[in-house]
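Worked example

This section walks through a single chain of length 264. The input is the sequence exactly as stored; nothing has been trimmed or padded.
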Amino acid sequence: MATVRAHGVDVAYTCSGHGPPLVLVHGAGVDGRMWRPQSEGLAAEFTVVAWDEPGAGRSSDLPPDFTLADFAHCLAAVIEDVGLGPAHVAGLSWGGTVVLELYRHHPELVRTLILVDTYAGWKGSLPPEEVAARVEGVRRMLAAEGEEFDPTLPGLFAGDPPAAFVPLLDAMARDVRPATMGAQLFMMAEADQRDLFPEIAVPTLLVWGERDTRSPLGVARAFRDAIDGARLVVLPGVGHMSNLEAPEGFARAVRGFLHGFRPL
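Given that input, the structure is written out below as tokens.
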């Protein structure tokens, strides 16, 4: 475990393996532990970096008025602290939104983009009525107190969560900070990053669960059509958290995509 100080936050991250840097950015309501299969399975070929974003895991709390750009600047600080040059950067769900914002502000740190079951912000990817419904759901979730607070978002998996990862999911859920989750999701609701698509000039992989209901395949196709040269890999029978529901297929997609960009 390493820590870097950036924008008033101590940001924790793990680093395993050897090779070109592959930075993994988790979604809302979880932390860097969600990448455990990838941290173990890809470490023979890559230096796998998984952060705990500000306000999550072993990182310190969010300062007041923290913004999406601040998340991106903190992620940039992690990449710089690893010190291996521009990185392959992957983000799932909210993490993909952070990764896009990283590219907006620090494109020199990004060698390739891997966008997984994500959004150009909810405003940039979902119908207004769906965004409104999700915002209302977030408000209800945050209004719950104590043990009534449940950070589990609906539709994360195509079926039941994989049994092997249920203890991990429960552990991450217990550690969720309501203030962080609320900040993330309200930022997501307001974000519209479609203006960035024509500016993306690095190789881009899109990995999507075929049965993702939170970010449906139509969102993936919109990314593919708007980002020059973007490649879409659809994982059959898989929902929103595709890295946990199909870790082997996810690893194959990532390896196949990055093979042409090694060594750095």
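What to look for: The chain has a mean pLDDT of 95.
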